[in-house]
Amino acid sequence: MALVAKLGENVQVPRHVRMEVTGNGMVAAYIHTGAKVGVLVEVGAGKESTVGQDQFKQLVKDITLQIAAGNPSVLSRDQAPAAVIAKEREIAAQSDRLKGKPSQAVGRIIDGMLEKFYQTYCLLDQGFVKRNSEISVKEHIASLVGQLSDEITIRRFARFQVGEVPPA
């Protein structure tokens, strides 16, 4: 209330997230230029020694940038709500792109449209922004797993944007 009176603006905090590292890993935060977007992410490693390596620290930083830029809704496909996938499948099935297509091709076209949806909705399927989307985030992490000889997993993330309306 004091902040509202001081600033003359209606300040509300619609949601908050607290992250602590479980096991080996790191929690990182990123505030995008202009302070309109903020990100928290927890990335885990199999070995304690991996967390101190520069490659791991750079990966975690890059993941925060990816989340800020890509605005994913979930980490992976298995976390996507069934209702959202069903709605996207329905939208794809009613697309004008399907008009006049043979019935045996319609299923593959819909699957292709869903694949494009996953590439925006799921963090691990997004094109990695620092590599011009040539590879996915999942593929970039896999390449570092080989270099570090360790298991690396994104455990969870939260993205905040000024003015966002929290999900009900």
Give a structural overview.
There is one protein chain. The protein is α+β, with helices and mostly antiparallel strands and 168 residues long. It folds into two domains: 14-72 and 131-168, Tetrahydropterin Synthase, Chain A, CATH 3.30.479; 81-121, no CATH class. It has helices at residues 2-7, 48-51, 54-70, 82-93, 103-121, 137-148, and strands spanning 25-31, 37-45, 152-161. The protein has a three-stranded antiparallel sheet with strand order 1-2-3. It is flat, with a radius of gyration of 19 Å. The mean pLDDT is 90.
What characteristics describe this protein?
168 residues; alpha+beta; Tetrahydropterin Synthase, Chain A; 2 domains; three-stranded antiparallel beta sheet
Write the SSE topology.
Layout: H1 2-7, E1 25-31, E2 37-45, H2 48-51, H3 54-70, H4 82-93, H5 103-121, H6 137-148, E3 152-161
Strand order of the largest sheet: 1-2-3
Distance between the termini: 24 Å
CATH top level of the largest domain is Alpha Beta
Q: What letter string, H or E per element, gives the SSE order?
A: HEEHHHHHE
Overall geometry: flat
Average pLDDT for all residues:
90
The CATH topology of the largest domain corresponds to: Tetrahydropterin Synthase, Chain A
Largest sheet: 3 strands, antiparallel
Q: Which range does the strand content fall in?
A: 15-25%
Portion of residues in helices? 40-55%
In short:
The chain contains six helices and three strands.
